[in-house]
What does this fold into?
Amino acid sequence: MIKVGLGQDSHRFEKVHTKKKLVLGGTIIQDHVALDGNSDADVVYHAITNAISSVTGVNILGRIADEMCKSGITDSKAYIKEAMKYMNQMTIHHVAISIECKTPKLAGVIPFMKESIASVLNISKTSVGITATSGEDLTPFGQGLGIQALCIITVEGNG
It folds into this structure.
C-alpha cells in the first residue's frame, strides 16, 4: 500500500536577536534572527514530522512534543524520530518540501538541508526535493515576518 502524507508548519521570527540560532532542515543558518518557538522552531523538520503524523495518525507536534520540550528536548530531529516510531512496516520513499520566506535566501543551504533530512529519514539525498520561494510580499512569510514550510511524504507498506 502506498500512502501520501501532508505536513505544514510556520513560525514568526523572534522580535530581537538572541543567542538562539535559525535552524532549517537541521541546518544552522548563520547571521539571521531565529524563529520564535519553545523548541529550535525548525519549520522544515516540523512539517516533516506533521507529514509523518498524517500517515500514521499519531500527532507528535502538540502534547507529545510539548512534553519533550518541557523535559529539555528542543532539537526537532527528536520529533521526527518520535514520529517514525509509529510507522510500523512503512518505508519512506520520497519527501518534497516547499519553503516560503522573504529572508534568508536559501539557495546556498538547500544541499545541506537535503543531506540532513536524508540522514534523519534514512533515505537517499536524491529522494529529498526542496524548493524555496520568496512569496512576493503576498503573505506574512513573503513579507519577512517568518517562515512557512510544506511537506509531502510518500511511504509504502502496511501501516
In short: The mean pLDDT is 95.
